[in-house]
Design goal:
387 residues; 16 helices; single chain; three-stranded antiparallel sheet; Aspartate Aminotransferase, domain 2; seven-stranded mixed sheet; Aspartate Aminotransferase, domain 1; globular; alpha/beta
């Protein structure tokens, strides 16, 4: 299947805008949003039956698994995991908070993160350390000149006998670097560490086999690249940790087993999770392998084209690029967070271009998200607007 701006009507985006920010909060395809509305109408026809019998609890052997477990099984097949090891959470931050709150910590214990950790997660890590007396060790990753082998070496070197949890990025939210996550997990676990992987940007962007990565916890969003409604995410947990893990909200599912505890935390809208398989089918109908290749190729083209247009450097190999890429802007743009905010807002309000902008390593960067509805003309508009 061909891709490009002619596919834009499959999403509810403003047709006159240039949207290069799919990775931030996702965009729900019209088809998936319609499926969600149908499901919501079905729930409201008999809400007590659906919420109290079909969704969480199973009352008859002829009916098979509950609605949540059916959806979990479909998502698990897509991400390379067992359905019994996968639970739904609102977003990656929720899953990480569940792990942090369930990890026994005391004064002198260590939490290891990288300097590419998502800001919201770093806030949760720092709060956990503040309330338990634990220490946060931040590992500096090689960047902007990225070296995968050095990244593995540095995170493994940070693990000590006091390390209680390592949080590693699969795709960094800001820099968009694709880390050699399987090697990083293997190196940390060889030193006895428990490892949580933040895969927020991975499902739908990269081919994913969670089981092969081998992390103790893998948490990722489905509402970004996997086309699910917001907010929808999952957590895959190794069996050895399941009995010790609890959701941030303790409710009716407590002591009813790992999946029941996370499935049954009170009344909430289940439609984002139950419609996650609709998002996966949308990807497959587009031609999932071809789509990932198109998005990657467009992101890699953007990196080369923009650095050429702006006279800046590109110090990463193609293997470190997925469907997003961060590109350094001209020095005249500035160096600070305030400069980044100013550029982001001018691009939106003066040029109708939505793109993520941040300050890092003494420069301002734009992070381009390449999606099926984007094409090279979008990249050219961005280049001209920044100039």
């Amino acid at each position: 299947m061909a891709f490009g701006r002619f596919l834009l009507p499959l999403w509810p985006l403003d047709p006159v805008a240039t949207y290069l920010n799919h990775g931030t909060v996702g965009v729900v395809p019209i088809r998936v949003a319609e499926a969600q509305q149908v499901l919501r109408a079905r729930i409201e026809r008999h809400p007590s039956k659906f919420m109290l019998r079909d969704l969480w609890t199973f009352t008859g052997s002829a009916d098979g698994p509950t609605q949540m477990r059916r959806a979990a099984a479909e998502v698990a097949a897509f991400v390379g995991a067992r359905g019994d090891d996968l639970v739904f959470v609102d977003n990656t931050s929720t899953g990480v908070n569940a792990v942090l709150r369930s990890t026994p910590l005391a004064c002198g214990d260590e939490l290891v993160v990288t300097d590419h950790i998502y800001g919201g997660l770093l806030t949760a890590v720092n709060y956990t350390a503040r309330t338990t007396g634990a220490t946060v060790r931040v590992v500096e990753m090689p960047y902007p000149a990225f070296d995968p082998a050095l990244a593995v070496e540095r995170i493994a070197a940070a693990v000590t006998p006091r390390t209680k949890l390592v949080i590693a990025d699969h795709i960094a939210a800001e820099s968009a670097i694709v880390f050699p996550i399987a090697d990083m997990v293997r190196a940390c676990k060889a030193k006895g560490a428990t490892v949580l992987v933040d895969g927020a940007h991975v499902p739908g962007a990269l081919s994913l086999d969670v089981s092969a990565i081998g992390a103790d916890y893998y948490v990722a969003n489905l509402h970004k690249w996997a086309m699910a409604p917001r907010s929808s995410a999952f957590m895959v947990v190794a069996p050895a940790h399941q009995s010790l893990l609890h959701p941030p909200v303790i409710s009716w599912g407590l002591d009813q087993g790992f999946t029941q505890e996370f499935d049954w935390v009170g009344t909430r809208d289940p439609s984002p999770w139950l419609c996650a398989p609709d998002g996966i089918r949308f990807l497959q109908d587009l031609g999932y392998n071809a789509l990932r290749k198109y998005n990657h190729d467009l992101a890699w083209h953007a990196a080369q084209y923009l650095t050429g247009e702006w006279g800046t450097e590109l110090q990463i190999d193609e293997s470190a690029v997925g469907c997003m890429v961060s590109v350094m802007t001209p020095e005249s743009i500035g160096t600070t967070k305030a400069d980044a905010v100013r550029l982001r807002d001018r691009l939106l309000f003066e040029h109708n271009i939505e793109v993520q902008v941040h300050a890092r390593a003494g420069r301002v960067w734009v992070r381009i998200s390449a999606q099926a509805y984007n094409d090279r003309a979008d990249i050219e508009r961005l280049a001209k607007a920044v100039r």
